[in-house]
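Letters spell out the chain; the tokens describe the backbone. To illustrate:

===
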Amino acid sequence: MHFVLLRTRAKKRMREFDILKGVIAGFPAVPERGVVAGPGDDCAVCNFPGQKQNLLMTVDTMAENIHFRLDWSSPEDIAWKLVASNVSDILAMSGRPWVALLSCQYGRNISDDYINRFFAGLHQAADYFQLIIVGGDTLSGAESSFSLSLLGTTNKPVYRSTAVAGDDIWVTGEIGYSWMGLQSLLAADGGPNKIASLYLNDGLSSDEVTFVLDKARKLHFRPELAQEFIIALDGSDLINSMIDISDGLLQDTGHIARMSNCRIVVDACCIPRVPVKDQHLVASLSGGEDYQLLFSARPDVRTRLEDIAGQVGVRLSRIGTVHPVVEGTAGVELYYRGVVVPVGDCCGYQHQW
């Protein structure tokens, strides 16, 4: 197997998806030995020997000073977010989490008490999301890094590449609060009034500002997932394509558009989102770490989807439509108050090297 990593220009920093293109090119074009789907979706999909279900596999890592800061995040919060980010991938394939392996690199400044609190938070999150930690590995390093490999099961996997022209685009929960939480942490020295004047809509009362910022920080540290919604769907055929919003709504919608070779039109006025000033609209839809689900479905199942979401208490919003590619390339078009909003080529988070 050969991994081909190409730099287009000598001085240009390489971005995450540039590397992934080279890595994916090194994998077999046709899945083999029980592999149903390899890289490219939220999870790999394999046959489950002797079972009608498929096995889902994903892995996610949280690294100090990239995904968290020790002066911001409690060890319990880090553990919660690590588990939630992995579970979100499983949900995006219409699956349920099952068992996980944990790898921990502890920084030299980590105390025994910190490690004990991390594991207490890990077990709390595992219980909440209904998965079992079955083993792992530990090591030491200059900074802390935690990686979780999660297996799940599904009766019918849902992919990014199966959106159909005419589908509705739906999103669970609310968008942009995690991004707003991060901005409030970065600008914490200015106090809530300064943060509000920079980012939030004018006219909010002091109580409303406090509510929004508290909610934003809470969701940044402890994302809430739409797990009960996926469980209630129980492998039905109501959803055509799906992805979790980890890198920003616009970028992740673009993944579905490109992999399904379609054009997705999104109306920002229909997105339940953090109340930020218009100049921060694109940023709030690109910040990532919402860990909500974005999916496409036929228009004739609207009522059924809304009924299921209502029964389990999950907010569900119809925010756009899927169109065929007539001219140009597959991608996302964002509208706000009837006007097209330029989003550019990089409208979401990517690691860089």
Notes: The chain has ten helices and 13 strands. The chain has a mean pLDDT of 90. The chain has three domains: 1-30, 43-154, 168-341. The two ends are 23 Å apart (CA to CA).
